[in-house]
Design goal:
about 230 residues, alpha+beta, Archaeosine Trna-guanine Transglycosylase, Chain: A, domain 4, 2 domains, 5-stranded mixed beta barrel, 6 strands
Length: about 230
């Protein structure tokens, strides 16, 4: 059993916090809690594992009033809470594990509560998985180096070690500011290979442009003098 699965062991009903964003496992998410119902939720989860569910919900694009049954979300663990004098809170959370919303629970609470099923990626062939993860890692590092040349720092690109492929795929995904339409399918899939293949496709289409921009930026800083030709 993984560490993530152990953290949610015994949890069947999860308080839900619908937001217009996608949270991934291992992704940090700061929140500003101001609505009374979610202030109450924070107090309640503090008594039991400090866990609630983040679910993508964009009401402006739908006639439904809450996330649909069967939708995928990510359990968020509360790491830090800064209580403000007026009752609002600044909260730091981290994604733990994904879940599927089976149904809503009739609970005497001001916030939504879901009957959920937690899951992780399915086991896959390591002879395919590990080389693919290495290819994505190489592309990610090339993009991070290009970002460093452009800005003098890695920016939003963290140092990502060689870790288990599923965790690695989520860390790489979290490093990019993907739109929900792209990020949600990467959360939803239960195939690490499928997620890595999509990341490879995206990064492969980006890395050349970033490296070219970085080289142009480098030349511009030397008043246009360079020993290396650049094809424009």
């Amino acid at each position: 059993m993984s560490d993530a699965s152990e953290k949610v062991l015994g949890i069947k009903h999860l308080p839900l916090f619908p937001l217009s964003l996608v949270l991934l496992p291992n992704e940090l998410l700061p929140l500003h809690i101001f609505e009374p119902r979610y202030q109450q939720m924070l107090k309640d989860v503090a008594l039991n594992k400090n866990m609630f569910g983040i679910m993508l919900f964009e009401p402006s694009e739908s006639f439904i009033e809450k996330p649909a049954i069967g939708a995928i979300g990510c359990a968020a663990e509360v790491r830090e809470v800064q209580q403000l004098p007026d009752g609002r809170s600044n909260v730091l959370t981290i994604g733990v594990i994904r879940y599927r919303l089976i149904d809503y629970v009739d609970a005497d609470e001001p916030y939504l509560v879901g009957d959920v099923e937690f899951f992780e990626d399915e086991p896959e062939d390591k002879t395919v998985l590990e080389p693919l993860a290495e290819e994505v890692f190489v592309l990610f590092e090339r993009i991070a180096r290009a970002a460093h040349k452009l800005s003098g720092q890695r920016g939003t690109f963290p140092e990502i070690p060689h870790i288990e492929a599923e965790q690695f795929s989520f860390l790489v995904t979290a490093a990019f500011n993907f739109e929900n339409e792209l990020k949600y399918p990467l959360l939803e899939t239960r195939s690490t290979i499928e997620r890595l293949e999509k990341l490879y496709e995206i990064l492969q289409g980006t890395v050349g442009k970033m490296e070219e921009s970085a080289e142009i930026h480098k030349v511009a800083q030397t008043n246009g003098h360079s020993k290396k030709k650049i094809d424009l």
